[in-house]
Every structure is written in C-alpha cells, then in structure tokens.
Amino acid sequence: MAEKKLYRSSSDKKLCGVCAGLAKYFDLDPTIMRVIFIVLFFLGCVGLLAYLILALVMPVEK
Q: Distance from first CA to last CA of the chain, Å, rounded?
C-alpha cells in the first residue's frame, strides 16, 4: 500500500494549490474542496485563515 502524503498541487492550482492538494489527498474533486473553503470563509473567515496557514505549512508537490 502506497503511503499518502499531503502536498500543495503544482499542476492544478488557482492560488497556491492548497485545495487541489487536499482534494487529491482525500480523493475528492478540487472544485468541491474550493467550495468548502469558500463556505468556511463566509462563516467567519475560518476558511481564509486555514488556507493561509496551509499555504505556508504544506510543501509543494514535486
């Protein structure tokens, strides 16, 4: 079984590739992950804060 690693996407990105990387890790469509972050943003800016933290912490896919 291959080990799953969390990376920012270098190929399918709109801003930093966080949503595409998370979607790939959880086997989801990147659009669904982007919608989740937008909803979280409108529910108190949690989505923006989480996105910025993940953009700084997650390594870029090679």
A: 20
**Residue 62 to residue 49: CA distance in whole angstroms:** 25
Q: What pLDDT was estimated at residue 1?
A: 65
CA angle 14/16/20 to nearest 5° reads: 65
SS3 of residue 60 by DSSP: strand
The reported pTM is: 0.84
Residue 17 region, left (φ>0) first, then alpha (ψ -120 to 50), else beta?
left
Residues in the chain: 62
Instruction: Report the number of secondary-structure helices (H) and strands (E) in the chain.
Output: 3, 0
Q: In Å, how far are 24, 35, 36, 44 from 41, measured between CA atoms? A: 21, 10, 9, 6
